[in-house]
């Protein structure tokens, strides 16, 4: 069900970060989410971390290397949610 | 000692819901486009932020002016409501927090436009207009050829309105000021009848004044302003 979760996360990203004119199809699961690719910034990273906590009960360290790896792209984010969701 | 005079070179204003006026410098759009700001930055701006950024882009297209921004209440929707979230132990939205500061709109504009000049945010308990002119005069005397002064305000959230004597109307005005060409802005002591009718000037009052529809008076400072060619 990786694709269903990826689609769910795409909607979470678009809604939480109020991305204008971005559809789920615009988010490539393998492309970087931050700076390049989708072009998110550090405030988005904090906002997304909060959304993961609220939605899936996942708590991350704000600036750890591990968090950077999880936030690399949509696939890594989906793997994180799959492994650590508490709902 | 004579004070250096200030000249008004150009202005833009935004006041949704105002009876439409044929002056092209005034916008009454319900939802300004914010077209001067890239979409990835624009998403963080509300209607006020979009209006202000677009006005700044029109008045200072080369993004080279010092920018001043005065607002009595700032973005109350973000700042005051955030306090309730804290009291209720609800996590704060980092994006909303980042935009709750008084200079947030100018900050977003500076990123979008590349303006690296001074940005100054002012709140002055109802004397924002007088404070803006004082600050602008300082920069102009210091050698700036032009300064942009923005004055904006919006109603505070509903649960705070009982603490406000005169509710703010959502509106914003931006003026390009100089020591040189343009209409001269002069202040003089306000008359007693003027003071009796006056309330702390809001951006909408400045718009009325710019359109020649009403005098502009600050009761706290006891001043009235006029525009002369």
TrEMBL record, chain A:
A Pfam family: PP-binding
Sequence ranges assigned to domain Carrier in this UniProt record: 3-85
UniProt xrefs under PROSITE patterns: CARRIER (PS50075)
SUPFAM superfamilies assigned to the protein according to its UniProt record, in alphabetical order: ACP-like (SSF47336)
InterPro entries, per the entry: ACP-like_sf, PP-bd_ACP
Coiled-coil blocks: none
Gene3D superfamilies tied to this protein: ACP-like
The protein, known as: Acyl carrier protein
The organism's taxonomic lineage, starting at the top: Bacteria, Pseudomonadati, Pseudomonadota, Gammaproteobacteria, Oceanospirillales
UniProtKB/TrEMBL annotation, chain B:
Domain Beta-ketoacyl synthase-like N-terminal: 11-214
Pfam families documented for this protein: Ketoacyl-synt_2
Origin superkingdom: Bacteria
Name of the protein in its database record: Beta-ketoacyl synthase, N-terminal domain
